[in-house]
Predict the structure.
Amino acid sequence: MQLATVANNPDEQAARSRVLAQYGGNSLLGIAKFAEQYVAAIRGGSSLEAIGQSEMSLSTTAQPQEGLHHVY
């Protein structure tokens, strides 16, 4: 997640902004979701332009991850 917060080239900034806009006032969740998509794009050799562009990006990253539990 730290890598996602310091991503600073124009393509990375635009991708982060698109994802943050999808999560409105919840910037922590937005950064976490951007980090997931960013790492997947880097590892998969995908374009950063695809990050946050469609509802698909929301549906593929909005699923709970195994082993993670919410604490209230």
